[in-house]
Amino acid sequence: MNRRAPQETDRAEPGAARLEGAVLRLSGEWTIKHALALDKQLNALEFSGGALTFDLSGISHFDTTGAWLLDRTRMAAEEGGASVTIQGGSDDQMSLFEAVRKAEPKPDKRRNQKPGPLIVMLDRAGRAMLHVKDGARDAIGFMGLVIYTFFRTILKPARLRFTSLVHHMEETGLNAVPIVMLMSFLIGAVLAYQGSEQLQRFGAQIFTVDLIGISFLREIGILLTAILVAGRSGSAFTAQIGSMKMREELDAMRTLGLDPVEMLIVPRILALVITLPLLGFLSGLAGLVGGGVVAVASLDISPVMYVERLQQVVEPRHFWVGIIKAPVFAFLIGAIGCFEGLRVTGSAESVGQRTTQSVVEGIFVVIIADAIFSILFVNLGW
């Protein structure tokens, strides 16, 4: 046993601890008044294996703090490999010591153990769900603020920035026409080719026209357009507003008494709400043309027969079902893009992270909204 006793006096006041061989003799007042001095003495003790006796016969006053120091010393000795015996204390002292010892929280041995992969996965999933919950709450509050600001602007049209509105309509609408029409044309062609391959087995190639017309006007056209806009315009909104926030331009606007929501966000979202239905209309036309090209080329259907079949099976309600969704999709995409832009912190890395986040969230929310619309229209008989 390697023991080193601190320099002590034989006075009973204040409390003292002397290590004599295998006996630790305690004396004086073990109270909160002398806790600092006792703590220094006890920390200087070094314990190793073997039997060790704590002699409490010299303690004159003993309170909860002294009992806790005694119990802490006991645990330190046992961790050093010693076998501790406590003796010499009065009944009151031993009762107090036992009460403190039982109240001492037991160390959790599992705390230092490395968690397993399942625990790590569940922990990450739980943290992600909490993050999603907080983000969804903030996003809903932001959308409410945008709607309130929009109606406030409608009541005072002079506050609307028409120049900014037209600029963003050009950016989100006119400049997106080529990519939207090209993708819709190709998807329409692929849908017609794959559909005809399956329907040909049943001798029902003519129903390929029905498949193209109804599916593109009701679902595929507007959904494809919304996904392209989310990746193109939604990410642009996030990057633009995020860069402005990083350069503290939003703070400067507030200092000048300008509302960033009214000046920056409302024109962007309103431009998207106006242009997305138009893009959806062009997407539907391009998809029908792409499907018609494949139908005429591979199904021996004449262009006149293709158009007549479309007129027979495609009712106006199919067109309106798709167009009704467009403003809702546009509002969700624009609001999420601007919201993520406002969440950018002061680094370029944050701009990239939020831009990616806005695209993912925009596409996810659009698909969820489309599913809700589909269930609603089916139940309404549309």
Provide an overview of this structure.
By secondary structure, the chain is of the alpha/beta class. 70% of the residues lie in helices and 8% in strands. The chain has a four-stranded mixed sheet with strand order 1-2-3-4, with helices on one face. A hairpin with a 2-residue loop joins strand 1 and strand 2. Helix 4 crosses helix 11 and helix 11 packs antiparallel against helix 12. The longest helix has 40 residues. The N terminus is likely disordered.
Sum this structure up briefly.
The chain has 382 residues and is α/β, with parallel strands linked by helices. The chain has 2 domains: 16-108, 2-Layer Sandwich (Transcription Regulator spoIIAA); 126-379, no CATH class.
Write the layout of secondary structure elements.
Blueprint: E1 16-20, E2 23-30, H1 35-43, E3 50-62, H2 64-79, E4 82-87, H3 91-103, H4 117-155, H5 162-172, H6 177-199, H7 207-246, H8 249-255, H9 260-298, H10 303-313, H11 316-342, H12 348-379
Parallel strand pairs: 2-3, 3-4
Antiparallel strand pairs: 1-2
Helix pairs in contact: 1-2, 2-3, 4-9, 4-11, 5-9, 6-7, 6-9, 7-9, 7-10, 7-11, 7-12, 9-11, 11-12
